[in-house]
Target: Phage lysis regulatory protein, LysB family
Amino acid sequence: MLKLISLLCTAALVALLFISWRLHEAHHIIGLQQQDLKSNKEKIADKNSQLIALSILTETNSQALAALTANAEKNGVLLRERLHTIEALTRENETLRNWAATKLPDDVIRLQQRPTFTRGEDYRQWLSDNHPLPAP
Model:
């Protein structure tokens, strides 16, 4: 009988040790998960602030695009009005029509000659370079 009680106590002690070990492992896993959760919260907060910054930037760009589009439309209207005015004046005034039809002198044409540009950087570089006047 004493052996049975001793065996039961040993079994209970082993079970208690096993449960204690499992509980310790569970606490360790919970600690790791809490650290991961904290790290993930920080990452989410960082991403959220980046998204807010991008949203603000997108809104600013949208407003700038709208302003530029409005200016481009306004400039287009002004250009069309100017061209119509020039055409109307040319049709009405024979002297102006004859003057507009005459060819520019060769010296003036040489002053207006410039290379063909494909990029804005090429044009800026050409403007920055020192270009002597063409020889007559």
Remarks:
- The first helix runs from residue 2 to 92.
- The chain has a mean pLDDT of 89.
